[in-house]
Amino acid sequence: MARKLMKSQNTWPCIKELIGFLLQSRDNQLTTDLRMGINHAIIFYSACYVEGVMEYVLKTLLSRRRELYNKIDMPEFEIRRTTNTLFNALEEDLEIRISRSTGISTYLDLINLLTGNTISQNPKIGELLEGINILFQFRNVLAHGREISAARLSAYWIKEPWQEIFLGGYKRAEEYLIKIGLLDSGFMDSNKVDLFFTNSIADHFWDLSSDFIARSIDALEDQDKIAVSKALSKGMKFR
Asked: To 5 degrees, how large is the angle CA 84–CA 55–CA 44?
């Protein structure tokens, strides 16, 4: 007979505490580099917070379904064994999918799989998806400490006077931030050292993350919403 002992601890509450501390740490006495570093961290950890909470939400939803099935009177051992095997397989599959996730769509798809509730089609969530996807892409370049690098090219085969070469997560973040009015100009036209790491940009991504989590929970069915809200209120606990 196989036995499996597990212990787990969610870490998103300490990320939330850290971001709160970082927000309060900004003042006019900071050097430009330090302020940029703090805002860099706020943006980075905002994405980590979303992933941590969404993982916890998924595991709470699966746990609730296991509890509901366990309340059903199943006198036959074979039926109980099959049901337990199914939920164990679901838990393992959930872990694998989460570990391979590179964006928010995986979490939304898994919520749909577990609940039948396609919350990504909820208008209140849909209007935040562009920003959340940008945040995840932005986080990926920040995680590797990538430099911000762009160029303009002029050549006889280029129709325009100059062709700008600026790709990747920084470029997508730039386009998004210009679109929502948090940047007046792009990297090539700006003389600001802290272009992507101002207080307003860091605040935007943290507010966006918090709002996305709140709306995602609110979009759940009533009993799921109650179960998830209760679980989240426990904070950082061992299980």
From this structure: 160
